[in-house]
């Protein structure tokens, strides 16, 4: 099995954002 | 360039230290038919940081809802905490996602 996929989170104007491939 | 996508309103970051929560992204690229219909990702708060990662363990595919956070150790060069799957005990670095030992 491979590594655990990690995601970057952010916040802008009170809204959550996520970086996807 | 990073592809920032909004997480639907109503999703909140976990507040309890060390307790894994989920965010439903509803993003098509994150959804997976039967196994992840809401495009959920897992998130945990630890040491004033939020770590976000796949909702299921790569080793056993069981949801990481009961995963435990372990402190950094020499395996992560004392820089990143570790996550252990409660079901199969596979352990990962929350710094780069690598499977440990």
Care to describe what's here?
The complex is a heterodimer of chains A (21) and B (101). With 21 residues, chain A is mostly beta strands. Chain A has no helices and three strands. Chain A has a two-stranded antiparallel ribbon. In chain A, strand 2 and strand 3 (15-19) form a beta hairpin. The radius of gyration of chain A is 11 Å and the shape is rod-shaped. The mean pLDDT of chain A is 94. By secondary structure, chain B is an all-beta fold. Chain B is 0% helix and 29% strand. Chain B contains no helices and seven strands. In chain B, strand 3 and strand 4 form a beta hairpin. Chain B is globular and about 35 Å long. Classes of the chains: A mainly beta (21), B mainly beta (101). At the A-B interface, strand 1 and strand 3 of A face strand 1 and strand 4 of B. Strand 3 (15-19) of chain A pairs antiparallel with strand 1 of chain B, so a sheet runs across the interface.
List the SSEs and their pairings.
The complex is a heterodimer of chains A (21) and B (101).
Chain A: E1 6-7, E2 9-12, E3 15-19
Antiparallel strand pairs in A: 2-3
Chain B: E1 4-6, E2 21-24, E3 40-46, E4 49-54, E5 68-70, E6 82-84, E7 91-93
Antiparallel strand pairs in B: 2-3, 3-4, 5-6, 6-7
User: What share of the residues of chain A lie within helices?
Assistant: under 10%
The total count of helices of chain A amounts to 0
**Biggest interface pair, counts:** A-B, 17 and 34 residues
Order of helices and strands of chain B: EEEEEEE
Helix content of chain B: under 10%
Low-confidence blocks of residues of chain A: none
Q: Strand order across the biggest sheet of chain A?
A: 2-3
- Gyration radius of chain A (Cα, Å) is 11 Å
Beginning-to-end CA distance, first to last residue of chain B: 33 Å
């Amino acid at each position: 099995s491979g590594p655990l996929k990690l995601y970057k989170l952010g916040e802008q104007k009170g809204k959550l954002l996520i970086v996807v491939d | 360039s990073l592809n920032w996508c909004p997480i639907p309103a109503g999703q909140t970051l976990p507040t309890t230290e060390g307790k894994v929560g989920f965010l439903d992204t509803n993003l098509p690229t994150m959804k997976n038919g039967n196994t992840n219909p809401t495009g959920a990702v897992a998130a945990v708060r630890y040491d004033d940081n939020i770590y976000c990662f796949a909702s299921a363990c790569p080793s056993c595919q069981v949801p990481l809802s009961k995963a435990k956070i372990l402190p950094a150790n020499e395996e992560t060069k004392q820089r990143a905490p570790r996550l252990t799957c409660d079901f199969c005990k596979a352990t990962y670095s929350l710094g780069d996602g690598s499977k440990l030992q």
